[in-house]
Specification:
This is Aspartate/glutamate racemase family protein. By secondary structure, this protein is α/β, with parallel strands linked by helices. It has 2 domains: about 100 residues, Rossmann fold; about 120 residues, Rossmann fold (3-Layer(aba) Sandwich), CATH 3.40.50. The strands form 2 sheets. Strands 5-4-6-7 form a 4-stranded parallel sheet. Strand 6, helix 8 and strand 7 form a beta-alpha-beta unit. Helix 2 packs parallel to helix 3 and helix 7 runs parallel beside helix 8. The protein starts with 15 loop residues before the first strand and ends in a 6-residue tail after the last helix.
C-alpha cells in the first residue's frame, strides 16, 4: 500500500473533528470533550471566544471564526466529518455544511428527525433534557426537522450543581451530584409525561449519565456520543467475515 502526505497536515488517523466552545468546564470520560470516551481517535479545535451567549446574540459576527476553525481541522488534521460540543450549535448547521464540504453534524438535536419517525407520535413523544430550556425554542426544533408537538422539554437551568458547572462555569464538577440531578430530572419527566418513549440528551455534558438514566427510566437514550459513533462507523467499519 502506498501513502501520500497531504500538504500542511502533520497528523493522521482522526476521522471526526470536534469544534469546542471556549469554556471553563472539566470534561469527564463519557463526555465528547474527553478523548477517552471514544474507541477511536478524534481531533479537537477550540473556537476562541465562542460562548452560548455569543451564538444566540452575535451569530453573524461569530460565524466566520467557526467556519475558519472547521476549515483548519480539515486542512491540518484531515478529518472527514465535523461536529461540535453544544446542541445549540445547530444554529450554525446549515452555514457550516455549505462551507466545509465534508459531512457536518453540529448538534445532538439532529437525531430528532429520525427519532420522530421511529415512533407513533400520535400516542408517543420524545423527551429532551437540555441545559437551558428557554434556548430550545420552536425555531431550533424546526431547524432540526422536528415538529415541536412531538417533544417534551426539561431544562436543567434551575438545578443546583449542573447549573454551576454548565452555565456559571465554576470549573468544578461533582459526578455524583450531576448524575443525581439528571436522573431525577428524567424520572420527573417520565412521571409527568408517561407517553415519552425515547429520551434525547441535548447537552454534551450529559452523555456520561446516559447509562444511569437508562437504568432509571427503562427507555432508549440518545445523546451526542450515539450520534458521533453513528457517523464514525459510516466511514470506518471492520470486516467481520
Amino acid at each position: 500500500m502506498i501513502y501520500q502526505a497531504k500538504k500542511g497536515q502533520v497528523n493522521y488517523g482522526e476521522t471526526i473533528g470536534i469544534l469546542m466552545l471556549d469554556s471553563h468546564i472539566p470534561f469527564i470520560p463519557g463526555d465528547m470533550g474527553n478523548a477517552f470516551t471514544f474507541s477511536f481517535p478524534v481531533q479537537y479545535k477550540k473556537v476562541n471566544g465562542l460562548t452560548v451567549k455569543q451564538m444566540y446574540e452575535e451569530k453573524e459576527a461569530v460565524l466566520p471564526k467557526v467556519i475558519t476553525a472547521g476549515k483548519e481541522l480539515i486542512a491540518k488534521s484531515g478529518v472527514k466529518a465535523i461536529t461540535g460540543n453544544c446542541g445549540y450549535l445547530l444554529l450554525f448547521q446549515q452555514e457550516l455544511a455549505k462551507s466545509l464540504k465534508v459531512p457536518v453534524f453540529m448538534s445532538s438535536l439532529l437525531q430528532l428527525s429520525m427519532l420522530e419517525k421511529i415512533i407513533d407520535t400520535s400516542s408517543q413523544k420524545i423527551g429532551i433534557i437540555t441545559a437551558e430550556s428557554y434556548r430550545l425554542n420552536t425555531n431550533l426544533l424546526q431547524a432540526a426537522g422536528t415538529n415541536p408537538k412531538s417533544v417534551y422539554i426539561k431544562g436543567l437551568e434551575n438545578t443546583s450543581h449542573f447549573a454551576e458547572v454548565a452555565i456559571q462555569e465554576t470549573g468544578i464538577l461533582d459526578t455524583q451530584q450531576i448524575e443525581q440531578e439528571v436522573v431525577d430530572a428524567a424520572a420527573e419527566m417520565m412521571k409527568d409525561h408517561p407517553e415519552i418513549s425515547i429520551l434525547l440528551l441535548e447537552c454534551s455534558l450529559l452523555s456520561p449519565y446516559s447509562k444511569a438514566i437508562q437504568e432509571k427510566i427503562q427507555r432508549p437514550v440518545f445523546d451526542y456520543v450515539t450520534l458521533i459513533q453513528f457517523v464514525f462507523e459510516s466511514f470506518i467499519r471492520e470486516r467481520v467475515y
